[in-house]
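Below is a filled-in request sheet from our internal design queue. Each sheet records the structural input a requester submitted and the sequence that came back. We keep these sheets so that new team members can see what a complete request looks like end to end.

REQUESTER: design group, bay 2
PRIORITY: normal
MODE: inverse folding
CHAIN LENGTH: 363
BACKBONE (tokenized):
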């Protein structure tokens, strides 16, 4: 007998594998969503066992400090000795520690509630390290993380991966420089996302350089492929996107930088909310100074949808996505200031004449 069927089991222990190995079995079929204990995972790697995924129920009970896992990931953990070795490499451990540190920061700042939010980072062109589903970022350790391929198939991990890894993978595929992706629910930025508004531009330099204009993607059910694809029209020109009725997603060259962008955009939105209560209009950064910030941003290799725009467009981001801002005097094909001013005076004079005529008629 060369293949063992363990599809009836939800949790695979090292004792299960030792029994099979004693019978000379090298290949094991498991149910979808099956979870290997850390010791069992080590044995699969050390003994070169092959694990084959089979369809099955998705409810997986857990163990350890987190209690029950709840719903398992949509794909089984398909062990690969090469993937497991890569996941345990010094390079991977640096990334795993960075992900855990970022998760703890998100929780401390109140950017993730319950088991919310997810973080991922490329290990190489084939594999991505990611956070698991149904685990608070406050409790997360390096042993809780997993490894998936670029299709979302989980290769390593004792906990099922987040269903929202699909969003991360779509961003990584669309933007090669997006090595890390971070999704969370910071309250002030999310407040904009649930009102269908985007924060205005040209207010605070840090926002302009590190984030810039913010896009708003349409709503889809989180965790689905349709949801993952909602960001594709925006992600190449924006490193931070508001997810309608959900939260935000940020990408960067490192996990730490992606977490920075989340802090920058939420602090920005918080500041705007405070300013709205002061009873005075916002003071904008002058367009020529905003252009200097964009030049700096371009040198840093960061994206911005405003690259190539005329100065008069840089600070005219509409609050409602899809609205149009215009700068007819300075836009390509526009007419000189003197002509525009003359036409404006003619319009004002014509309106004045009509009002005066109406008043005389009524008198």
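RETURNED SEQUENCE:
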């Amino acid at each position: 007998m060369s293949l063992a069927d363990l599809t009836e089991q939800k949790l695979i222990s090292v004792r299960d594998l030792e029994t099979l190995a004693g019978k000379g079995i090298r290949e094991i079929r498991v149910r979808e969503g099956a979870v290997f204990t850390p010791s069992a995972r080590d044995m699969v790697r050390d003994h070169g066992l092959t694990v084959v995924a089979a369809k099955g129920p998705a409810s997986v009970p857990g163990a350890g400090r987190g209690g029950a896992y709840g719903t398992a990931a949509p794909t089984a953990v398909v062990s690969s000795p090469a993937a497991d070795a890569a996941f345990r490499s010094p390079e991977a451990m640096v990334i795993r520690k960075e992900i855990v540190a970022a998760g703890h920061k998100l929780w401390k700042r109140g950017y993730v509630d319950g088991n919310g939010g997810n973080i991922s980072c490329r290990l190489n062109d084939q594999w991505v390290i990611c956070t698991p589903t149904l685990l608070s970022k406050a409790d997360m350790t390096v042993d809780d993380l997993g490894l998936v391929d670029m299709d979302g198939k989980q290769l390593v991990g004792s906990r099922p991966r987040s269903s929202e890894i699909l969003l991360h993978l779509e961003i990584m595929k669309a933007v090669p420089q997006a090595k890390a992706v971070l999704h969370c629910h910071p309250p002030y930025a999310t407040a904009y996302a649930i009102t269908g508004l985007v924060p205005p531009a040209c207010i605070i330099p840090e926002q302009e350089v590190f984030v810039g204009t913010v896009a708003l993607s349409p709503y889809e059910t989180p965790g689905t492929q349709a949801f993952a694809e909602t960001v594709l029209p925006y992600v190449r020109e924006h490193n931070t996107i508001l997810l309608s009725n959900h939260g935000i997603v940020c990408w960067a060259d490192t996990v730490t930088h992606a977490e920075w962008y989340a802090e920058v955009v939420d602090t920005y939105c918080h500041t705007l909310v405070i300013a709205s209560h002061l009873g005075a209009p916002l003071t904008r950064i002058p367009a020529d100074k905003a252009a200097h910030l964009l030049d700096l941003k371009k040198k840093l290799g960061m994206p911005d949808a405003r690259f190539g725009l005329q100065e008069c467009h840089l600070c005219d981001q509409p609050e409602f996505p899809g609205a149009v801002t215009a700068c007819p005097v300075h836009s390509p094909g526009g007419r000189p200031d003197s002509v525009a001013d003359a036409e404006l005076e003619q319009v004002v004079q014509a309106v004045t004449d009509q009002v005066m005529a109406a008043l005389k008629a009524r008198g």
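SHEET NOTES:
- The first strand starts at residue 3 and ends at 6.
- Residues 56-75, 322-340 have pLDDT under 50 and may be disordered.
FILED BY: M.R.
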